[in-house]
Write a structure and sequence with these properties.
Shape: elongated
CATH architecture of the largest domain: 3-Layer(aba) Sandwich
Order of helices and strands: EHEHEHEHEHEEHEHHHHHH
CATH topology of the largest domain: Rossmann fold
Largest sheet: 8 strands, mixed
Strand order of the largest sheet: 3-2-1-4-5-6-7-8
Number of strands: 8
CATH superfamily of the largest domain: NAD(P)-binding Rossmann-like Domain
Oligomer: single chain
Strand content: 5-15%
Number of domains: 2
CATH class of the largest domain: Alpha Beta
Distance between the termini: 38 Å
Amino acid sequence: MKTIGKIGFIGGGNMAEAFIKGLLGGGLPADMIFVAEPNDLRRAFLAERYAVATRIENREVVAAADCVVLAFKPQIVGEVLTEIASAFVGDKLLISILAGVSTRTLEGFFDGEPRIVRAMPNTPALVGQGAAGLCAGRFASREELAIARKLFETVGTVQMVSEEQMDAVTGLSGSGPAFVYTFIEALADGGVQEGLRRDVAQALAVQTVLGAAMLVKETGEHPALLRDKVCSPGGTTIAAIRVLEERGLRATMMEAVSSATRRSKELGRKKED
C-alpha cells in the first residue's frame, strides 16, 4: 500500500495542528510535514512548537507534498484552488475538510482525474478524540482512501460513508459537540440549582458524560439497555427520565441533527451555484 509520504496543510489553524500532533505522535518525521499559513505569528508558532516546515505561499507546500490537506475556511475555496491548481500534478492526493464543498466542486478546479477525498472531522480531534466521516471522489483509489483514513485515525475514529451522507455526518458529529457542551452545561446548572458549587457541578457533569460515553463504547451495548440498568423501580433516575420524555429531549435532539443537516445541504448548494 502507498504510504502517506510528505504531507502539506493549506491552512495552519487548530484542525491542522491537531493532525500535526497526531502525525508526529505516530512517528512521522517533522521534516515530512509542510504548512502554508498567511499569519506570521501562527506560522512562527507552528515552526517553533513542532519543527515543521512553514511557508507563506500555498503553491510551495503543494509542490513539496505528496498529500495535500485543505484546512482553511470554505468561503475562500475558489481563490485558493485557482492559485494551486497548476502545482497539483501527478498522483498527488487532495484531502478536503471544507464543510459543504463536494468532491465534484473540488474536481472542477483541476485538469485530468484529480484524486480527492472529502472528510468531515470534528473539534474533539484537538484532543485526539475526533469522529470523522470520509468519502472518496470519482478518481480516488482504495489505496488513497486508506491513506486518508490513516491520517484521520491519528486524531480519533473514522466512518466511511457515501458523499450523499456527508451532510448527515455534519449534522451529527460535526455539530454534535456543541449539543453535548450544551447538555454538560445544563447538567452542571442543575447541580448548582440544587446547591453544588459550580466547579464541583461541572467536574461531576463532565466526568458523568465522559464515563457514560466510554461505557457505551467499551461494552457495545445499546444505550437504552445501559439506561435501563440505572433506572431502579420507583427510583430517582426513572423519575428524571419521565421529565426528559415529557419535555421532549429525544425529539429535540433528533430535530437538532436534522436542522444542522439541512443547513449543511443549503450551504453546499450555495457553493455549487
